[in-house]
Amino acid sequence: MKAAVFKEEGVLEIANRPRPEPSEPMDVLVRVAACGICGTDLHILAVPQNHPCTPGTTMGHEFIGDVAGIGAEVDTVAVGDRVAVRPILTCGSCQECLLGRPNHCLDMTALGIHLDGGLAELAVVPASACIPISTDIPAEIAALTEPLACVYNASRKARLVPGDDVVIFGGGAIGLLFLAMCKEAGAADVVVVEPLRMRADVAGRMGAATVDPSDGNVVASVAALMPAGPQVVVDAVGTQLGNAVAVAGTAARVILFGQSEHADTVVHQVDITKKELTIIGSYVGQEVFPAAVELLASGRLDLSPIISHTGSLDDLEDLITASREGKVVKAVILP
Question: For the stretch 121-155, what's the b/e string if a residue is b when 16 or more beta carbons lie within 10 angstroms of its beta carbon?
Fold first, then answer.
């Protein structure tokens, strides 16, 4: 079968690999229907490398597919079922897991990073990673389950109240998922700060006003749209804490979601104190993955504008290059 394999720093290979088969009693063989290209994948393939990945691993952690085989003890899914794959595998026995914080498992591994993932025709995954999902959801939309779960987890921490105003820094796939979640939860006005016209146009179609930060003073531009400041601010980029604090209204909740190991942001701490802001960090969405599947199945979110490109494994390297160049909102591979 074809698989996208991380070879070494900056090197991705579309390789022919042996067809995998369930080898453990709780294994599930998934015929991959769709796998998203994520910012994490770009970090893995960057030079210098900005995210760990085990050499020789098939990449891809945002995937869904159909069950093509099961181990002897699997009774939670059956051959023919469509499943969304929860890529983070937790131990269940470390201190963090026992305290109900699986997002911070001390022995965490991840499909597509440490173990073979979904940028392939077939993948073997644990049955515990398989969450049934309706075939009524288009495959490329269903492939958004993993990032949606992460955004769902962050959004519930924001405690959005219907009528709240929201500012989102970043109009990539994650920022647009936040936009969809906020609108579904009853947000009043949403502003997306995004320099790339293509992404800003998608945000506009999804119901947001947009600000181009390259036009000048982003704080003043946001203030012109929201003079009292928003009640919720989301940094979906990972470098915008300073601006997020500056634009926030009094008693606002600031969600830090995007990640950048090299961010060095100037923050006026006194603004946090005077405005009585709440700063909230949010990581992955391990425990809310089934809830994200239910939300997709409900039909309450129209995420179709987010998918800008689809392609085969043969198109993967071109789509990764286009993603790096900011020419893609969200690309999904259909093996």
Answer: bbbbbbbebbbebeeebebbbbbbbbbbbbbbbbb
